[in-house]
Each structure stands twice: as C-alpha cells, then as structure tokens.
Amino acid sequence: MKATLGRIVLIFWALSALTATTATAAAPSPTAVTATTTAASDWHVGLNLRTDLGSHPIRLDGGVRLGTWDLVAVADIMAWTDGQMDTDFMAFRRGDSGWATMVGWRWTRISLGDSAQSQQKLLLGVGGDLPDLSASIRASWGMELAAVLVKHGGGLPTESLSFASARHYIDLLNFGMFVRIEFWRGW
C-alpha cells in the first residue's frame, strides 16, 4: 500500500508541476476568469454540485483563497436522506491560466442499522475557473479521483485499498466531476 500511495503522490506532484509550468507559459483567455482577475485573498461560500454516485449531488462548500492556494471545506446537506454523510477538506493550487490541481481528504460515514461504517478517501483532481456569473459570484469546474484508502466499523471487516487484483480496487476508486458556484468577497 505504501508503494501505491507513493505512486499516487508522485502523479499528483507531476500534475501540480505541469499545471504551474503550463500556467506561466500560457496566455490567459479573455473569457477565462484567472487568479489575477479576482482578489488575491478572499473568502467564499456556495454550492458544490456533483456527478459521481459515491457522494450526494448537492453539497455546501466554503473556504478561503490565499494567493494561488484555495482551501475548501465541503459539508453534506443531504445526509438526512439516506444516512450517508461526506465531509471534504481540499486544497487547490491555481496557476495563472485559471487551472488548478487539487488534493484532499473525504471522510464518509454510512449508517448501517444501529452502527456505522467510516471510509477514509484520498482525493486527487484538476479543475479550472469558468467565466464569472456576476461581480460577486464565480464558478469553477473540476474532475476528481476518490480512492477509498480504508473502510472500517459497522460490524464489517476492515478493508483497505489494494491492487492485488481488480476485485480489490474496482469498487474503491470513484471518478467524478463537480461544479462549484460560489459567492465571494476579497479582503
């Protein structure tokens, strides 16, 4: 598992370096919202709309953007519907072109009768800014890989990510897309 995590971190590092290099070399599009057109530091709150089946489609997010870094926490507002709750903590590193690499952590709690199972997931992804919707509302789009590193509790055996065979990992890797629409204010 350590070798697998090492490969995942190496891939993320390479994507991050590529994004930073591409961002400085590429000319910004006149229609793209870039880090230079918004405040260098701001706070934001908004909707996180998702396509993947591993989490609820509508969630709330909020955070702060500090220069090229965007730190975001995401709360699951639909947990009451089925007993599954996801909480994300993500860090986006933005380049001048508006593209960003993302790394994060998702804790999932799934109710199973009188007990619950917890899942710890590593998040890796890329994203980009979309055109501003208004002077104080912006949008971004992204893709992510959510890798379940370990699941435990609920009276079930503990299971961790393994690449020994497809049976070991096929249900533990989820790809998804998301759109973030957020209200923001600089300081």
Main sheet summary? 8 strands, antiparallel, barrel
Spatial sequence of strands, sheet with the most strands: 1-2-3-4-5-6-7-9
Q: Low-confidence segments, ≥5 residues, pLDDT <50?
A: 17-37
From the N-terminal CA to the C-terminal CA, the straight-line distance is: 43 Å
Series of H and E elements: HEEEHEEEEEHE
| Whole-number tally of structural domains | 1
Coarse morphology? globular
Number of strands: 9
Strand content: over 45%
The name CATH uses for the topology is Porin
Helix content: 10-25%
What structural category arises from helix and sheet content? alpha+beta
Mean of all residue-level pLDDT scores: 84
What is the name of the CATH class? Mainly Beta
Radius of gyration: 18 Å
Number of helices: 3
Question: How is this structure best described in words?
Answer:
The chain has 187 residues and is α+β, with helices and mostly antiparallel strands. 17% of the residues lie in helices and 55% in strands. It has 3 helices and 9 strands. It has an 8-stranded antiparallel β-barrel with strand order 1-2-3-4-5-6-7-9. The relative contact order is 0.21.
Keywords:
187 residues; Porin; eight-stranded antiparallel beta barrel; alpha+beta
Quick synopsis:
With 187 residues, this protein is of the alpha+beta class. It contains three helices and nine strands. Strand 1 and strand 2 form a beta hairpin.
Task: Set out the fold topology.
Layout: H1 2-25, E1 41-50, E2 58-66, E3 69-75, H2 79-82, E4 84-94, E5 99-112, E6 115-129, E7 137-153, E8 156-160, H3 166-169, E9 173-186
Antiparallel strand pairs: 1-2, 1-9, 2-3, 3-4, 4-5, 5-6, 6-7, 7-8, 7-9
